[in-house]
Amino acid sequence: MPELPEVEVVRRGLQHSVLGRTVGAADVRESRLRWPVPRELPQTLAGRTLRSVERRGKYLLLGFDHGVLIVHLGMSGSLRFLSRPPPPSRHDHVDLPFEHGTLRYHDPRRFGAMLWHDAARGPVLEHPLLAGLGVEPLSSDFDGEMLYRATRGRRVSIKQALLSGEIVVGVGNIYASESLFRAGIRPGTPAHRVGRERCERLALAIRATLSDAIARGGSSLRDFVASDGASGYFQLDCYVYGRAGQPCRVCGEPVRTLRQAQRSTFYCPRCQR
Questions:
Q1: Does residue 216 sit within a domain?
Q2: How sure is the predictor about 2, in pLDDT bands with cuts at 50, 70 and 90?
Q3: 2 is catalytic
Q4: Percentage of the chain surpassing pLDDT 70?
Q5: Residue 205: CATH number of its domain
Q6: DSSP code of 227?
């Protein structure tokens, strides 16, 4: 699943390729995504100019004068700008045409979303999908003290607390594993037992890990490509994720794996306590 760095890479690409451009009539070939694509979307967007490209957690927010198109890439989705689009393939579900090319939504598993939020309904951040999200990890609102306070009384593992999205958004499986390694914290540690000093280390590790991943274009494990079709390379730098049985890059101890909430977790038993 594309996580915060991958979505941020796409956002930055779209700012460069389509911001300030006018949309034609959208071509919705398959509306059955996680939630149905609105039938009136082609009429809603035709002739409108894209005014902003923002992100909230893993959601892309394409802003127009009269509302916001909310896009989620799901498990396997991509949003690519094609200056000369080839004929659509089986999993190319939506095209947003611009005068200089096409923004194409591709999603083999159809777990993504493309929803319209009309400006008359109020701020888009009050949309039900966005209103309950935690803080942005790269914002000034996120630090060790905030993380410490938010984890008091939480008996789930610290990794599960990060993945929930209730405290901090966009820290998915890859980056939670990598951040916990950098902070030296065992992923199964109950969240309420992570003290103030370790929360400070973890918050710094999360910010650094996400920033490094964005700089590397995200992680391309299966499906992810940026808006220009480029792959990410952060997975080549991972300390533990996807490296079960291989020597830790720091101490040489074999990396171990365990299952947490049906997801694989990777850690070093020596470096993480």
A1: yes
A2: confident
A3: yes
A4: 94
A5: 1.10.8.50
A6: T
Of 56, 58, 154, 243, the catalytic one is: 58
- Both 39 and 157 in a single domain? no
Set 3, 6, 8, 178: catalytic member:
3
* 56 a catalytic residue: no
Identity at 257, one-letter amino acid code: T
pTM of the model: 0.90
Same domain (yes/no): 8, 127: yes
User: Are residues 108 and 150 located together in one domain of the fold?
Assistant: no
Helix 4-17 to helix 196-215 angle (10° resolution) is 40
pLDDT tens per residue across span 105-152: 999 999 999 999 999 999 999 999 999 999 999 999 999 999 999 999
Two tokens, residue 69:
């198109």
Range of the domain at 233: 144-267
Q: What is the DSSP string of 55-100?
A: EETTEEEEEETTEEEEEE-TTT-EEEEESSPPPP-TTEEEEEEETT
Told to judge if 149 belongs to the known catalytic residues of this protein, a careful annotator would answer no
Q: Which two tokens stand for residue 188?
A: 């199964």
CA distances to 27, 53, 86, 124, 185 from 130, rounded to whole Å, are 26, 16, 34, 8, 29
Same domain, 126 and 158: no
Asked whether residue 115 falls in the same domain as residue 53, the answer is yes
Catalytic site residue 159? no
> pLDDT tens, 203-257?
999 999 999 999 888 764 445 444 444 544 567 789 999 999 999 999 999 999 9
**What's the rounded Cα separation, in Å, for the pair 170 and 268?**
23
